[in-house]
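idk why but the lab printer keeps eating my pages so im just putting this in chat instead. protein + adenosine-5'-tetraphosphate:
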Amino acid sequence: MKRILSCMQPTSHLHLGNYLGALKNWVKLQDEGAECFYGVVDLHAITASYDPEQLKDATREIAAAYIAGGVNPYNSALFVQSAVPGHSQMMWLLATMSQMGKLERMTQYKDKAGKDKERAGLGLFAYPVLMAADILLYKATHVPVGEDQKQHLELAREIAATFNTRHKVDHFVQPEPYIMGGATRVMSLRDGSQKMSKSAESDLSRINLTDDADTIAKKIKKAKTDPEPLPDNVKDLEGRPEALNLVTIYASLADKSREKVLKQFAGKSFSDFKPALSELAVSKLAPITSRMNELMNDKAEIDRILAKGAERANAVAAPVLQETMDIMGFWKK
Ligand code: AQP
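predcted complex ->
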């Protein structure tokens, strides 16, 4: 049986990219019977500047989005990373077998640290080691990853192999990347060459799962496009990244191929296509938003769900951590 581990950071509100690129497919995996661990990785979120006043609610909001998007917390383990102590403990153990040279080559670190590496935090540098700990702690067999996380997963595989070889054991499972059929890479509404992102400065660049119908319609209306009508095939969208992005979003929300969407809208201009896309986006997202709002109005219920999830996650994680420490030769009481 597949054991899946996947997580999101409570850095801000989730957006349509997080939904179509990850969450929607998590629900499919859960419904196909995989054993799923879905985390809200708050320890990762503090590797960038953040507001301690908001972290708890941001964490609850991500959990609410998971549930509203279809994760069944009685079926999948929905947990907060910091509530399972094994994550940070395992990270230290794995840090002792991670090479600085490899961490320095991580593209995400290079992007996020920018030019001023001297001032980049150790947490940001060691982020991939914590991610390896997240995965190996559950002996996850499969990790759904986007392009940007492939390099980190490869590192987790290398760390697992180093541990097994060094200690002559077959302890850690080599996690496989799980390529999600139907996962969609959603691009910014302001620039079709950039991915839709929580941390992009302009809120007009993304549709948040917390946006109401008017806001969604306004953002789609203002989305960057070009003056050409829509073609009848995907190839003709080459060189038109914004048009391709809107068609891709429509197709993903409607669970149709882009070809089918283009057959439907061939020859139409964006003044026809955008209202149709708004209507579809609102009809798909409104039930999620309203369920999220309901859950956020009952924080005690979210906290109950998260406490149960932490228990379930810990029941798997704690023995793996102990076994790892035993292999490494630690004293135990
Ligand atoms: N634009 C996107 N299209 C498709 N999938 C996306 N994901 C993120 N953006 C898109 C997927 O969402 C999951 C959770 O991501 P994360 O919380 O770890 O943060 P991220 O990947 O760094 O996403 P953001 O929104 O860009 O956050 P910030 O701005 O905080 O860095 C992952 O599975 C990711 O692939």
